[in-house]
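Researcher: I've got a protein sequence and the SMILES for manganese (II) ion. Could you write out the 3D structure of the bound complex as structure tokens? I'd like something to compare against our soaking experiments later this week.
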Amino acid sequence: MITSIFYFIFSQFDSRTTPPRNMEALRPKGRTTATHIPPLHTAQLLPIVPFNRVFASVYLCALLAFFYHHLQRLISSTTPISSFINLILFISDLVLAFMWSTAQAARLYPIQRKEFPENLDKVITRSDYPAIDVFICTADPSKEPPMSVVNTALSVMSYDYPTEKLSVYVSDDGGSALTLFAFMEAAKFAAHWLPFCRENNILQRSPESYFESNYSTSSQTVEIKKLYESMKMRVEHVMEKGKINDEYIRSHEECQVFKQWTHKFTIANHPTIIQVILANNKSKDAGGNFMPNLIYISREKSSNTHHRFKAGASNVLLRVSAIMTNAPIILVLDCDMYSNDPQTLLRMLCYYSDPKIRSKYSYIQFPQYFHGVNKNDMYACQFKRLFQIQPMGFDGLGGANHVGTNCFFSRRAFFGGPSNFVSPEIPELSPSHVVDKPIQSSEVMALAYHVAGCNYENQTTWGYKMGYRYGSLVEDFFTGYQLRCEGWRSMFCNPYRPAFLGNAPISLVDSLNQQKRWVVGVLEVGFSKYSPIIYGIRRVGLLMSLLYSQYAFWPIWSIPITTYAFLPQLALINQVRIFPKVSEPWFLLYPFLFLGAYGQDYFDFVSAKGTFQMWWNDQRIWTVRGVSCFMFGSLEFLLKSLGISTLGFSVTSKVVDDEQSKRYDQGIFDFGVPSPMFVPLTMAALINLVALILGLAQVLKGGNSLEGLVIQMFIAGFWVVNCWPIYEAMVYRKDNGKLPVKITLTAAFLTWALYIVA
Ligand SMILES: O=c1ccn([C@@H]2O[C@H](COP(=O)(O)OP(=O)(O)O[C@H]3O[C@H](CO)[C@@H](O)[C@H](O)[C@H]3O)[C@@H](O)[C@H]2O)c(=O)[nH]1
Ligand SMILES: [Mn+2]
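Model: Sure. Here is the predicted complex with manganese (II) ion in place.
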């Protein structure tokens, strides 16, 4: 009964979205047609959905009761101090309840898709496959080793796909000759690697990962490994030296190419460089087959113009590729995300071979999976909820969230809504424009240079109505959301074998800094005129806007997390009871709400191939984020909004230091690089320990009954368990990853000051 009321309310609010309740997305395509075409894809609601809906209703009732109790307490507060405490608790719990409701939006209609690439040849012939442009962005050769970028490119160049239909575009915001050198070397190696993969039907086509795996050794593999190692040696040698030795330059043309890096060339000020490294009408591999196009682009930079980080780079890629190949489908990749499955393009075709789908769906998002994550993912870098679990919920509501990489776009989606085409300023950029000149012809090259210029976007709608959207450091989230608001649908495709694998940060500081950037980015969306709670709700419906709000307001988690890290503990130390006694009926709500939310989250997590320990670490890092990057990111957002600071896009390092990586593999926390973000974290660790000890002492002395303090003691104990690695790092570790003494002392002093004030 309750469920149906709940269901009814939501379906009323949500009439603008057309989730699969209209069954369109759920029906296996083709099964019902007269010609008996085998299905290319299916979609199914997850079996857990009925339970989720019932549980959501029950939980909602408990929440209503809980807030009734809260209000009662708030009204009946007698002293200013108790009003203050009750108010803070009320706000914190309100935030928790809001975040709970946003998470429910993902649990009401999650769907799982399946593709059948084996049926593809019954529907489309190879010669009719659409062309595909692949975009790979890199920004800094010192943080993103060119060898790893090159591996990403090689893994996609060797896809099981007609090579003449593939073009790989590399955007280098680092403007580095070394990166271009690496690509020129990679192109030579590709002439051997591509036929090798094809002939031997290799599954792992990133050479680095292939040679790390258990591959079968034959004389051919020995040979190809030698070629790879020699290329790697040259690239790494050049990286070490920081310049390209003459001995590595093999021809007059190559010499001319590198002459573009004149002495005036700097990262912030330089002209555009576009280098066609391989052209599919000219370059042949060792077996005599044509190779895919491979094009290097370093867009023009000038310190007087704003470059819009990755969004700006992606828009240059969109324009240059339009001039050169203008493929209708675009695959966007971060430089570390290599293809882990050569059949992925065929999976994508299971959807996009149907023009009806392409006219409605702007993108197909594949999840981000990572290699090299330690056994229990101690920094919770996999973001299972963001990348694997909630996208199914988004998808069921009509559109998956975009996560910046591993995504197949329909080029048309960058030019206005499905029925509202926004025409670009020159016809050559239009998705319907047919390229009829070879990519290296002088007209094509001249136009490509023109559209890559740093002032090209002035007086155009690039970044606002066309292309990737500007205004947020998480351009991926913002762009995906805007496309959804424009009326595009999108889908989430999560095959059993991960389609792509990337690097996750392996030190605490790196991961907190990455998420601090995300925090600034999402708040830029949450507090913009496009905020999901105001603008979004009218365009995408209540549920979808709730779901987008979860991310747009992601850092408000820090309000309840910080409150529960300090307030009950300070009260405990001062022998003040702030929660109901065990004997009061209201008490029961606390364990129910806590265990209910945690339990359901645990279930979601293990359903996405998680383990108990991974989940445990994940909830620990969630509390860590609450008192560090969420807080600091929000502060930075505030400063940025006030025009006081201008935080940029600090690229996450993909370089691994040996000692650090050893600690990571052993599961030891790394605090080595001092960061102010560690201070509130250490304070939380200290105050909880003190509160727990004093609380226990009081109870043992019999001065205060345990009955009234159970909840406070439990919270302090819970934090102490979660903070265990911090105590270790503070007290008895000697390695370079221990907590810097400076941080411990500052935190201890501030904790003491807090105690005095309280
Ligand atoms: O000015 C810039 C900055 C970054 N990048 C590229 O953007 C990608 C992502 O950067 P990374 O440092 O790896 O950021 P992450 O936080 O790991 O990336 C996630 O978050 C980003 C938004 O903050 C999205 O762009 C990414 O796709 C998404 O994977 C990399 O390929 C960079 O080379 C640029 O091309 N130009
Ligand atoms: Mn990354």
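Model: The first strand starts at residue 41 and ends at 45. The two ends are 48 Å apart (CA to CA).
Researcher: Great, I'll pass this along to the crystallography team.
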